[in-house]
Write a structure and sequence with these properties.
about 550 residues; alpha/beta; Gyrase A, domain 2; Isoleucyl-tRNA Synthetase, Domain 1; four-stranded antiparallel β-sheet; 15 strands; RNA-binding
Length: about 550
RNA sequence: GCGCCUGUAGCUCAGGGGAUAGAGCGCUGGCCUCCGGAGCCAGGUGCGCAGGUUCGAUUCCUGCCAGGCGCACCA
């Protein structure tokens, strides 16, 4: 559109051109006149009239523009304009919705990174669903994405694991032993130790403690990681890289970053420990890099890990962390800034914690006390797709109350089935079509302008929004926006389906409707895939 | 006490500087000679409180209130 008002382009404010909430307000509306009212000292409606008179709408499918309300200019489009998206969708297929806002930028997404000291819990599950969907979104939006799991196979919690396993080992072999206060009390360690005993019997009873614990830990970590990988795979979550914390120590990079920070003068000793001056970089307090015992902290290793990410060429680094880790963000970024890296390249998505309800009461989850519902249990109870959708349908910012009873009882009514049902319905239509000896019509043999019903046009119009929805969700790292979109498209499909027959003797109309539902099927499939949900042909 | 997140319908949550704030669940009625009724159509109440910025605030800012999570030589 061209404006030839007395104002120069530089003075035209950043106005909006949006789809109004109300259908009566047209297909698009702009608030430009409202924004100009002050500068021109004129009523917004009067300005709107002038702008409207100056508009050049040639070549656009606009059939009417009118001034409305306080000074909006509403545009009404040829109702069939959205039908043009149908051939586009069918030709692009699985690629429909692909956008290129990423420009092949190398982005690394780290998520879950659970301690291998037990089974995955609800918080890990949320991180898995969110992180995996964010990665898929970024991939679809033109980024070069690497999905990564950081294995915390070093540090205090591993020591505690070793002591706990040793206690179970003694207990199972008939000796008195107590699991340390800080240890892991879960039953899963009992099972693990039993399996260990089958392999090694009492061989480690007489060894010294560190050898015994080392052997137990090595065995346990292997088993744990295998179980974690298996569960995540069942959840539809896959990784490109499994990154071991221990490898950072072995490769010397932990010491290396500590030395660099020393050289740059950002550390000091206090009470025998080595501290990083995090406060100089905006953190609340300084942080220990090396304990008085000489053992580096998790923080030191994490700095080394992030330096490693930068060295691998990632220009954007996304970490999906639970809210209980948010205090770690400022000091990590501070340390990276101290080392000369751009902390802005690191984006930490903090997701609020999951609170589990059962029987109307909060279930306190803790690996140490051994009381929690694992991701495995969850998948078994409510199903993989329902579980994933549940985690991904809410924004990361929302505190998630997960009522297990409700999820179980209402699993049939879970919105994910509503969406998948829409997909299955379309597939069923195609089956019926084939049974009648008919086949999907060709684009060039179909007159899409036969689609004139409100339900048909509304559906086509929403399908046309998909690339924009992908863009928005990728920019916001907000998979839940895709979940909302999916639900709306499914709703429009169901409404259409209930009002109009697709397969009839009116071949011309039937064909155009078949292409509309085929386009819908493609959009549903592409969006479901972004969320890691399956698109079942029958349910 | 300090920091981060949240407060929208009975419940669980979307949305968002503008014209009549949405969905699901639950509740009440309708709709199958018909491609899958796991569906469709209709019906209700709501932006925590108080200031501020603005032509306009539920949205932005500040304070307060309420809840969650952090504030380790754990990760």
């Amino acid at each position: 559109m061209r404006f030839s008002a007395t104002k120069t382009v530089a003075e035209i404010p950043d106005f909006g051109l949006e789809v109004p909430r109300e259908k009566e307000h047209g297909d698009f509306a702009t608030n430009l006149a409202l924004l100009l009212a002050q500068a021109f000292k004129m009523s917004p409606r009067k300005i709107a009239e002038i702008i409207k008179a100056e508009l050049d709408l040639k070549g656009l499918p606009v059939i009417k523009a009118e001034v409305a309300g306080p000074g909006f200019i509403n545009f009404y489009l040829d109702p069939t304009w959205a039908l043009g998206v149908i051939p586009e969708i069918i030709e692009q297929g699985a690629d429909y919705g692909l956008v290129n806002i990423g420009n092949k930028e190398k982005v690394q997404v780290e998520y879950v990174s659970a301690n291998p000291t037990g089974l995955l819990h609800m918080g890990n599950a949320r991180g898995a669903a969110l992180g995996d969907s964010m990665a898929s979104l970024l991939d679809f939006a033109g980024y070069e994405v690497t999905r990564e799991f950081y294995i915390n196979d070093a540090g205090t919690q591993i020591e505690n694991l070793g002591k706990s396993l040793a206690a179970r080992y003694f207990q199972l072999l008939g000796f008195e032993a107590e699991i340390p206060e800080e240890g892991y009390h879960g039953e899963d360690l009992v099972d693990l130790t039993k399996k260990f005993i089958i392999l090694y019997q009492g061989r480690y009873l007489k060894e010294n403690a560190s050898i015994r614990e080392e052997a137990l830990v090595k065995y346990a970590l292997n088993e744990m990681m295998a179980a974690i990988k298996k569960t995540l795979a069942e959840f539809g979550v896959h990784y490109d890289v499994w990154f071991s914390e221990t490898s950072l120590y072995a490769g010397g990079s932990v010491n290396e970053v500590i030395e660099h920070l020393k050289e740059k003068g950002f550390v000091y000793e206090h009470e025998g420990a080595l501290w990083f001056k995090a406060q100089e970089f905006g953190a609340k307090q300084d942080e220990v890099l090396v304990r008085a015992s000489g053992v580096p902290t998790y923080f030191a290793a994490d700095i080394a890990y992030h330096v490693n990410k930068f060295r691998r060429g990632f220009t954007r680094i996304i970490n999906v962390w639970g809210a209980d880790h948010h205090g770690h963000v400022a000091r990590l970024k501070g340390a990276l800034a101290a080392l000369g890296y751009n902390p802005e390249a690191v984006q930490v998505v903090i997701m609020q914690l999951v609170r589990l309800y059962q029987g109307g009461e909060i279930v306190r989850m803790s690996k140490r006390t051994g009381k929690f519902v694992s991701l495995e249990d969850l998948i078994e109870e409510v199903g993989r797709d329902a579980a994933r959708y549940f985690f991904v349908m809410r924004s990361a910012d929302s505190h998630l109350d997960f009522d297990l009873d409700l999820a179980r009882e209402q699993s049939v009514k879970n919105p994910v089935y509503y969406i998948q049902y829409a997909y299955a319905r379309i597939c069923s239509l195609k089956k019926v079509l084939a049974e009648q000896g008919r086949s999907m019509p060709r684009l060039d043999q179909t007159d899409l302008t036969l689609l004139t019903q409100e339900a048909e046009l509304a559906l086509a119009r929403r399908l046309a929004d998909f690339p924009e929805e992908v863009t928005r969700a990728a920019q916001n790292l907000a998979p839940h926006q895709i979940a909302t979109y999916l639900h709306e498209v499914a709703g429009l499909l169901h409404a259409f389906y209930n009002h109009h027959r697709v397969i009839t003797d009116d071949f011309a109309l039937s064909n155009s409707r078949l292409l509309l539902v085929e386009a819908t099927r493609i959009v549903l499939a592409n969006a479901l895939k972004l969320l890691g949900l399956r698109a079942p042909e029958r349910m």
